[in-house]
Amino acid sequence: MTVTTAPSPTVPAHARDFLALTKPRVMTLVVFTGLCGMLAAPVRIDPVLGFTAILCIALGAGAAGALNQWYEADLDAKMRRTERRPLPAGRMDRETALQFGVGLSAFSVILMGLAVNLVAAAILTVSILFYVLVYTVWLKRRTPQNIVIGGAAGAFPPLIGWAAATGSVAPLPLLLFALVFLWTPPHFWALALFMRSDYGAAGIPMLPVVAGERVTRRQIGLYTIPMALTALAPWALGLSGLLYGVVALVTTGVFAGLVVHVATRTTGPDDRMVPEKRLFAWSILYLFIVFGAVVADKWLV
């Protein structure tokens, strides 16, 4: 495989380039699900420790994003969606990105362990290593199942938040972990359907590139079934109340309706993939609403 290296930077990296390395838009959802895991816990954490834990989750997520961009600079240079990132655009060198990612990783884990507790620090460590080593290094370039297995990387924050508050894990945060894990394939495969040419140009074996649209659409539908059951499980098992149950039922129903449209349609050469874009956009909002309902169910009912 021919590796495309990023241009050598001609000026020092700007602060906004370091921020871009952390993938702030992705971090928003990570921080939110971590915060919800913490607030849903049966104990109240000291506000200072709670803020510290959320800061560590954000820094850990940012560190993983930076190491991902360090390793994938050659792929990012081949994709329109990522070609303007600091490394492929030549605004930063790879060594700087590596040092930034490693330093941020170590700082987030050490701070979590010293200020909060070792259980939360251990789960944070696993989440960073899983995203960087398992997903980015091992799976991303090798298999169309990269998103399926790699989905666990983004599912750890509610476990970390819960562990920060309690020092342990429990069935509810494990179900929230499973929800994000099962949500990830429909979410990313919807994106991959309308970004198929980009992934193909970069040589990334995403499912639409390797197996085609029909298989991808069917897999989106199949993965939505256990995802929907998992979303309703906290209510069904008595781990959450009626408020959560109603919100989960309605929002998951909307999700399923969009999935049915995507899973059963065919496209032509000029298709703008509007249903796929709608599913992708709703899937992000869906996770915010469902996790918000977990907290609202505890604090408002």
TrEMBL record:
EC number, UniProt record: 2.5.1.141
Reaction catalysis annotation: heme b + (2E,6E)-farnesyl diphosphate + H2O = Fe(II)-heme o + diphosphate
Functional pathway: Porphyrin-containing compound metabolism; heme O biosynthesis; heme O from protoheme: step 1/1
Top-level division of the source organism's lineage: Bacteria
Membrane topology annotation: Multi-pass membrane protein
Subcellular localization: Cell membrane
Transmembrane segments: 26-45, 51-71, 92-112, 118-138, 159-182, 220-237, 243-263, 279-296
Record-linked InterPro entries: Protohaem_IX_farnesylTrfase, UbiA_prenyltransferase, UbiA_prenylTrfase_CS, UbiA_sf
Enzyme class: transferase
Misc remark: Carbon 2 of the heme B porphyrin ring is defined according to the Fischer nomenclature.
Function field: Converts heme B (protoheme IX) to heme O by substitution of the vinyl group on carbon 2 of heme B porphyrin ring with a hydroxyethyl farnesyl side group.
Protein known as: Protoheme IX farnesyltransferase
Organism: Sphingomonas panacis
